Structure prediction request, 171 residues.
Amino acid sequence: AAAMTLTMAPAAFAAETAEPSNNPTSSITTTNEDSNTLQYKIDHDTSGKVIVLDQNYKESITLKPGKYSIDLNGYTITNEDGKDTITISNGASLAIEGNGTVDNVSHGKAAIWNNGTCTLNGGMFTGGIYTINNDCAANLTINGGTFNVDPRAYVAEGHTVMKNGNTWTVR
Prediction:
């Protein structure tokens, strides 16, 4: 009996050191690095408060249906290579406030690709041929801002565009 018990011990210990399973009910953890992205801040802003930038961001963000407000606070949002800087989904509403820049350094994409509702109350916007693309049923209101644009086009106008005050610089 003792010999039989000793032969089973290694198998029991091996079971305890097995690799963790990919259990779909396990909790998801985020790193501090994840929570420092602008996309994370937007995705977890359930209170509808203004997201005030606290640094420059180099990422492309997508706004899902809901209401959002970003205060640029003197900082810059720059796109990831080959992507639009800010994409506003159908059903999403974005207001941009304050001084700062929304840039698309790829210049083959837009600084803002609007499929929802966008209100610009300040900021500088630079990008490719379409600094702002206001798609089919989208609504865009420009109450202020500076636009550094390609001479061929600055806004691909879609459904509704109201330009109430702004400065256009053709590069």
Observations:
- The longest strand covers residues 139-149.
- The chain is about 15% helix and 40% strand.
